[in-house]
Design a protein that fits this description.
Blueprint: H1 2-18, E1 34-43, E2 50-57, E3 66-69, H2 84-92, E4 96-100, H3 112-121
Parallel strand pairs: 3-4
Antiparallel strand pairs: 1-2, 2-4
Length: about 120
């Protein structure tokens, strides 16, 4: 039991460090048929400058269906950058895909992340 708790604590620590801004991932290569923008500000509650990354097809008759990718982390950790590759792949298949930043707990309590997500959709 103690070993499982220790392994869980190590995994949680790893995920929180990897998801931190200091370890932000480099954007994946962008194919010629996709446009990809990083760091588009969509809201500024409490002077937090919330941003999103967005991928969309260069060609085709829009409007395109959209997918919002929301990172995990229990509303306490994580980064939008983990979905960059998936957003680019979705754009290659005719979707507009975006991955968002939202305010994290414990500094920003529920429902702050929900409000941020709704703002990104709007």
């Amino acid at each position: 039991m103690e070993k499982r708790l220790m392994a869980g604590a190590v995994a949680a620590l790893f995920l929180s460090v990897v998801g931190s801004p200091a370890f932000a991932q480099k954007p994946p290569p962008v194919p010629d048929d996709v446009t990809f923008e990083i760091g588009v500000e969509y809201s500024n509650p409490d002077d937090q400058h919330l941003q999103l990354n967005i991928a969309q097809p260069k060609k085709g008759d829009g409007p395109f269906p959209a997918i919002v990718c929301i990172h995990g982390g229990g509303f306490r950790a994580g980064s939008r950058d983990g979905y960059n590759g998936q957003c680019i792949k979705l754009a290659q298949h005719g979707y507009v895909a975006l991955t968002i930043t939202y305010r994290l707990a414990p500094k920003y309590q529920f429902p702050a992340a929900v409000h941020d997500t709704k703002a990104a959709v709007r």
